[in-house]
Amino acid sequence: MSNRLFKLCFTVPQTHLEVCKQAVFSAGAGSYPSGKYSEICFETAGTGQFVPDIGSSPTVGKRLEVVRVEETKVEIPCVGKEVVAAAVEKLKKAHPYEEVAYEVYATEDA
User: Fold this and answer.
1) What are the strands, taking DSSP E only, across 80-110?
2) DSSP string of 29-60?
3) By C-alpha distance, which of 28, 90, 86, 97 is closest to 60?
4) Is 4 exposed, middle or buried (0-12, 13-18, 19+ CB in 10 A)?
5) Of 15, 36, 41, 110, which sits 20 to 30 A from 58 (CA to CA)?
């Protein structure tokens, strides 16, 4: 298993914040290589916007109309590619949207 540090960032409606965080933590995300802390994350409140197009099945809002949702951006460290991959899979299962907005970044040692 790699000790490379990644950061998983995702946005989630506030109604599903804790469910999604716990799903990601259950995959082993939320720690640093030292292993001295767990369930680490940073949260930022904001407003997400999207338009569900034809063929979509929106959880909130109506097709072809602008939807604005109070959401939280969550940033979680992940040690190793295996943990990132498992965390993303668990996030996709726990998240209420059919298209989950997430990003993964590899970090660099300074």
Assistant:
1) 102-106
2) -S--TT-S--S--EEEEEEEEE---TT---SS
3) 97
4) middle
5) 41
Cα 36 to Cα 31, 105, 108: the distances in Å are: 8, 22, 20
- From residue 65, alpha-carbon distances to 49, 61, 71 in Å are 10, 7, 18
Q: Which tokens go with 49?
A: 């916007």
Euclidean distance between CA atoms 72 and 18, whole angstroms: 11
Q: Please say whether the beta carbons of 72 and 14 come within 8 A.
A: yes
Strand partners, 7: 77, 105
